[in-house]
Amino acid sequence: MTKGKVDALLGIVFGDEGKGKVVDVFTPRYDIVARFAGGPNAGHTIIFEGKKFVLRSIPSGIFSEGRLNIIGNGCVLAPDLFMAEAQELETAGYELYDRLHISRRAHLILPTHRVLDRALEAAKGKHRVGTTGKGIGPTYSEKASRTGLRVGDILENFEEKYKALKARHEETLRQLGYTDYDITEEEKKWMEGVEYLRRFPLVDTETEINRALKEGKRVLAEGAQGTMLDIDHGTYPFVSSSSTVCGGVCTGLGVPPSAIGEVFGIFKAYSTRVGAGPFPVELFDETGDRIREIGHEYGAVTGRNRRCGWVDLVALRYAIMVNGVTQLIMMKGDVLDTFPVIKVCVAYQKDGVTTTDMPFDTEGWQAVYEELPGWKTDLTHLTSEAEFPKEFRDYIAYLEERLEVPVTIVSVGPDRAQTILR
Ligand code: GDP
Ligand code: IMO
Ligand code: MG
């Protein structure tokens, strides 16, 4: 955490790596925690002192006193869901008003964006992405086509702008033949959310962050999703619609590349993916079911089963390259505690071709594995690296050697306290 820099904490696989947990652990070292991409498609879990929170739009730095949290311009925000999330925190005793600033440039997710999300998915039939249904794709599409509404729009003539956009959405839905929906109740809550949003400082967060950097403050950019879900670098079209990579920190917060300090790449000791799309390491057997069971791999947002497999060095190397990862953080090693053999995907193979580079089309590739012995030890009570069983230490050393980046933090359980700095 360098003074006057933005450190980035990025999911480098398919999301759900444990970003929320680590941001919460890191926050005391920073002055500002800022989300730069995504919206309520994210579900970031934080567990401490017997309490559990799942955050969607609010940064995971909100539990540390005296820290400013920012929802940056690269994010998309649903006022109704934001209100529900914020009120849950307030009920739990966390005062938000002076600690949460929201960019006026962040785009608004309308109720009709969510209907469009469902309609477009339905129209795709068996080619659907398996989105979270939160209206993410339609909102970012609208941002790119320059017809969207931004948070700052709620401050002036909002009703009129809202009605015009909603009417356009309704027309599109009619054209899609998707007319069986009723957003009356949802819209009421959404409008309440808009009122609620007005109570927060709606500011030019890029100016605020750059000023803070000039004063030598430390900023942590909290990633959402993961590199393999990035609109440019993920397994397109089975991706989300934002820039989830390090470049997205610059555009999503309005900071120059020269302001980026450390880039923390976070991954699990195995792999998961939720939603459709290529996943060469996916296990369809008992081992996959066991990982899901032990790791509680069910979506934090949608409750869907997460697809499970072994760690994928092709994806990790690619993500490290694209993001310029300087430190790795390995989560959920404890989930593999009982496995006698741990496999690692070292390459992909298709039609007699073997590659260690991420292919353009990740469909149809088979994973090539190497095997390592499991540690068969309960890691969840460990508090320092000195206590690591040899096989676990060897697993980390193996990954570090092949990925050429040090693993500086190891997580051995969901609680804030189960985090080991190396
Ligand atoms: P995020 O979206 O990247 O913040 O991750 P999620 O919260 O969606 O998913 C991570 C899940 O793993 C959550 O349920 C966490 O409580 C849990 N978790 C995080 N780190 C660990 C760990 O080291 N071990 C175990 N067993 N669970 C963990
Ligand atoms: P966090 O921040 C895991 C996936 C969806 C779907 C695809 C597109 O918790 O890691 P979208 O609703 O964004 O249009 O869906 O992306 N997806 C995630 N998977 N973790 C997430 O966020 C995700 N956000 C989106 O399942 O496959
Ligand atoms: Mg998540």
Considering the chains and any ligands shown, give keywords for the structure.
binds guanosine-5'-diphosphate, 11 helices, alpha/beta, four-stranded mixed beta sheet, 422 residues, binds magnesium ion, 31% helix, globular, binds 6-O-phosphoryl inosine monophosphate
Cofactors and ligands present? guanosine-5'-diphosphate, 6-O-phosphoryl inosine monophosphate, magnesium ion
Radius of gyration of CA atoms, rounded to a whole number: 21 Å
Helix count, DSSP H or I runs of 4 or more residues: 11
Strand order of the largest sheet: 9-7-5-2-10-1-11-15-19-20
Structural class: alpha/beta
Shape: globular
Determine the strand fraction and express it as a percent band: 15-25%
**Oligomeric organization of the protein chains:** single chain
What would the average pLDDT be, to the nearest integer? 97
Give the proportion of residues in helices: 25-40%
Ranges where pLDDT stays below 50 over 5 or more residues in a row are none
Total beta strand runs: 20
N- and C-termini, Cα separation:
15 Å
Q: Mind summarizing the main beta sheet?
A: 10 strands, mixed
